[in-house]
Write a structure and sequence with these properties.
The complex is a heterodimer of chains A (about 500) and B (about 270).
Chain A lengths: L1 H12 L3 H8 L9 H22 L3 H30 L8 H8 L3 H28 L17 H26 L8 H13 L3 H17 L8 H23 L3 H30 L12 H16 L7 H22 L5 H21 L4 H30 L5 H4 L15 H16 L15 H26 L9 H4 L4 H8 L1
Helix pairs in contact in A: 2-3, 3-4, 4-5, 4-6, 6-7, 6-8, 7-8, 7-9, 7-10, 9-11, 10-11, 10-12, 11-12, 11-13, 12-13, 12-14, 13-14, 14-15, 15-18, 18-20
Chain B lengths: L6 H6 L8 E2 L20 H8 L9 E9 L5 H10 L12 E10 L2 E10 L6 H4 L8 E7 L3 H5 L1 H10 L7 E7 L7 H18 L2 E4 L8 H26 L1 H4 L28
Parallel strand pairs in B: 1-3, 2-4, 2-5, 5-6, 6-7
Antiparallel strand pairs in B: 3-4
The structure holds guanosine-5'-triphosphate and magnesium ion.
Pfam families (chain A): COG6_C
GO cellular component, one term (chain A): Golgi transport complex
InterPro entries (chain A): COG6, COG6_C
Chain lengths: ~500, ~270
């Protein structure tokens, strides 16, 4: 009986010698085993059990046992901590690591320290792996070192970023295992922070290399024919793409902010290089030749724009950039165009401008992105067409002898009209004859320069506006001439054609 | 219905799920349509595994990239295998996506990293960077779209350009098999596809992600052949580059190794001899 009681007491309030051994290990550096965790758990159970001793008045015994357990636990956790630290440094740590980390949660300082250690060690591996991939390549040199691609900046930057992205799943997996036994913490948050911490290590080598690419790309000569701006833009959208991709794995962190910084830098360099390139290209916008066609410089500048906008392929919110990019190209180009046409006469000038605007408009509408600028250009087109048609209507009215008649009959013609000097029967007769000539060859309506208009729709619009002006004036005059109070003796021989006939002949 | 398993859950398991345990080399889709004609794992590989002489630390890992034209069904194929789902709504892949699948091959833990690339032209420059150092390539075409088959050679060429000195395992996979109802329309495509596969040096498969037809078999085969290749490569490289090979190298950073020796299960995939 006595023996039984002692046995039960010992079982509930003391560690067995095996358990003590498991906690202490045979030497300072002996490995942790799964028995360790059982014994560690036992100390907690015993600590809980002491409350029965307290309840039954065995105060002193309870406190003694409590103290014993605390001491045992303390030194066990110390040992666990040292072991864990050593484990993090081997590439092949013990499977008990998750359990060990969970046990260390009780000591926040140690817990933090081992995670830090874990991150530091893996950082070293990651950097080493990254530098190997850059300079040595895979085992036996296959795949080839990434730095061999350095002559192709886009490929080089892309390969580096893809390498890092591909290293993250393994880091995530390792971190998920690490925290898998921890309780009462937001494991996904911890995992993210850990990957983010580990990935910090590649920031420096990555940053120096990408900065170098950006700067050397920016420094390249040959601004006119070169692809400098396009390259920089591609690099910048690649960086943006990876920033958002990697952010999904690591959350915010140094790597993400480094990528953001590099993205900003490359974008800034891109804009300044674009401005340079556009300035050079615009210098080549020369005054037009006889045909009033835009010089090659215009097409060249526009093809630069197209190339850039269509290069913005990988980033889904590139549209935000487009507004700035388009202004960067279109505004200086419009200036250059109007300067290059400055020496032309009003009519040729308008034709030339329309030709240039037409080219701009068709380029921009193919890009599907630029409604503001497109509206602005459409506005300029409308204004130029107004000017041009007004010029042409004036010219045609002059040629038809209508320029003196027209102001008389609009808005309130005198009565009788036939006695007004400009509208005597002879004048009307002369107009009719000239009009017949025009009707026989309606192309005469158009000024010679209008045949240089590159847009057939513009030509058509001009023709229509002119024709409508003639038709409505003819109808008005026809009506007046046929009114008895205007005292024309033989109206139908003066104006033999009905307005509808004129209309059908002209349109 | 089987539950879809998240990749986290998969990784935290001490051994692979039952249907991810491979103890014998699964057969090809068609015996005559593969360059990988071995009936079983290489002797050397089996010996190394049986003697416990696994050289590298960390879980073994192979990288598979999935390539092919837009909307040929790459993402659906990966999702069918990894999550057992099928979505008939098309959502274009942006850049690349990845999944990790855990296997036990001959009792050795093995991870297959699956990189699902975007078929859209605009992402080509990104996808190309993922071709580097890949161990297996799956080129996907849509059985209802002969043009997508015609493009396969070009996809492979680009992937090979990025791996001039390595020798990845190649699969040509026909998807959407469920859409061809008559066997004559399918066999016409098949003979053309097998001709392409022979030219490319690829193993031919036809699957449906919608019905799940042959999807498991395909990936199990990919995993088994990749494992065989990985161990083989390791055995060859062991002598030469011992110091480096035991160190984590980039995407193969050592997670930790096999927890305990995985018990040998009975073959979950019938060995067809
Ligand atoms: N009937 C049928 N439809 C399928 C099958 N596989 C894919 N689809 C459909 O094909 C379309 C494209 O599938 P995805 O897997 O997204 O195509 P993808 O190759 O990943 O496309 P990208 O990411 O743009 O390169 C979707 O609408 C799918 O529902 C299949 O086996 N059968
Ligand atoms: Mg996809």
């Amino acid at each position: 009986m006595q023996e039984e009681v002692v046995k039960t007491f010992l079982k509930n309030f003391q560690l067995s010698s095996e358990e003590m051994f498991a906690l202490k290990g045979s030497s300072r550096d002996s490995p942790i085993t799964s028995q360790f965790f059982e014994a560690l758990n036992k100390t907690q159970i015993i600590r809980n059990n002491t409350k029965y001793l307290l309840q039954t008045g065995h105060q002193k015994t309870a406190l003694d046992i409590m103290e014993q357990m605390n001491v045992a636990r303390e030194s066990a956790l110390e040992r666990l901590f040292r072991w864990f630290q050593a484990q993090t440094r081997t590439p092949d740590p013990s499977p008990l690591i998750p359990e060990a980390l969970a046990a260390l949660q009780e000591r926040p300082v140690l817990f933090k320290m081992v995670i830090e250690e874990w991150i530091v060690v893996r950082r070293g591996w990651l950097t080493r792996g990254f530098l190997d991939a850059l300079t040595l390549g895979g085992p036996g040199g296959a795949p080839k070192p990434i730095e061999l691609q350095a002559h192709d900046p886009l490929r080089y930057v892309g390969d580096m970023l893809a390498w890092i992205h591909q290293a993250l799943p393994s880091e995530r997996e390792a971190a998920q295992l690490l925290f898998s036994k921890c309780v009462d913490i937001d494991a996904s948050e911890q995992v993210q922070q850990t990957i983010s911490g580990v990935s910090e290590s590649v920031c420096r080598p990555l940053k120096t290399r990408i900065e170098q690419v950006i700067v050397s790309e920016q420094g390249k000569g040959d601004p006119v024919g070169g692809k400098k701006a396009v390259h920089l833009y591609k690099i910048s959208s690649l960086l943006h793409f990876y920033m958002s991709t990697i952010k999904q794995v690591t959350g915010k962190g140094l790597l993400v902010s480094t990528l953001e910084e590099l993205h900003q830098l490359s974008y800034k360099m891109f804009i300044s290089s674009l401005q340079n390139q556009v300035t050079h290209a615009c210098d080549r916008v020369e005054p037009p030749g006889e045909t009033l066609a835009p010089s090659a410089g215009v097409a060249k500048t526009l093809s630069l724009l197209t190339e850039i906008v269509t290069a913005a392929t990988v980033s889904d919110d590139a549209h935000q950039d487009f507004k700035q990019i388009i202004s960067c190209v279109v505004d200086p180009l419009l200036n250059a165009i109007s300067e290059s046409g400055a020496s032309l006469g009003a009519f040729e000038g308008a034709v030339y401008l329309l030709n240039c605007l037409h080219q701009l408009h068709s380029t921009l509408s193919l890009l599907h992105t630029s409604s503001d600028k497109l509206e602005m250009i459409q506005g300029q087109i409308d204004a130029q067409l107004d000017t041009l048609s007004q010029e042409q209507i004036n010219g045609v009215f002059h040629a038809l002898g209508l320029s003196s008649i027209y102001p008389v009959i609009i808005p309130s013609p005198p009565v009788p009209l036939s006695s007004h000097p400009s509208c005597q029967p002879l004048a009307i007769q002369a107009f009719s004859t000239k009009l017949d000539g025009f009707l026989a060859a309606p192309d005469y309506l158009m000024f010679p320069h209008t045949r240089y208009l590159l847009s057939s729709s513009f030509r058509k619009q001009l023709h229509q506006r002119t024709a409508h002006a003639i038709i409505s004036t003819y109808a008005q005059l026809h009506n007046l001439v046929h009114k008895p109070e205007n005292e024309y003796s033989d109206p139908s021989s003066l104006m033999p054609k009905l307005p509808d006939v004129v209309k059908s002949l002209l349109l | 219905m089987l539950l879809s398993r998240s990749s986290v859950y998969t990784m935290l398991q001490n051994s692979a799920a039952k249907d991810r345990i491979i103890n014998c080399l699964p057969p090809p889709f068609i015996r005559q349509a593969t360059p990988y004609t071995g009936d079983d794992f290489d002797e050397k590989v089996k010996n190394a595994v049986n003697s416990g002489r696994m050289i590298e630390t960390g879980i073994k890992l192979s990288k598979l990239i999935v390539l092919g034209d837009v909307a040929t069904g790459k993402t659906c194929l990966v999702n069918r295998f990894c999550h057992r789902v099928f979505d008939s709504n098309y959502k274009a892949t942006i850049g690349v996506d990845f999944e990790v699948e855990r296997f036990d091959v001959l009792g050795v833990p093995f991870n297959l990293q699956i990189w699902d690339t975007a078929g859209q032209e605009r992402f080509k420059c990104i996808a190309a960077s993922y071709y580097r150092g890949t161990h297996a390539i799956m080129i996907v075409f849509d059985v209802t779209n002969i043009v997508s088959l015609a493009h396969c050679a070009q996809w492979l060429e680009e992937a090979r350009d990025a791996n001039p000195d390595t020798n990845p395992i190649i699969f040509l996979v026909a998807t959407k098999r469920d859409l061809l109802h008559t066997s004559s329309s399918y066999s016409q495509i098949e003979s053309e596809a097998r001709r392409v596969a022979t030219n490319l040096g690829a193993e031919y498969w036809a699957v449906s992600s919608k019905t799940g037809d042959c999807v498991e078999e395909l990936f199990i085969r990919v995993a088994a052949l990749s494992f065989n290749r990985a161990v083989h490569r390791e055995l060859q490289g062991a002598g030469k580059r011992h110091s480096r090979i035991s160190l984590p190298k980039g995407i193969k950073l050592g997670i930790w190794k096999t927890w305990t020796t995985v018990e040998k299960n009975t073959c979950s995939h019938q060995c067809k001899k």
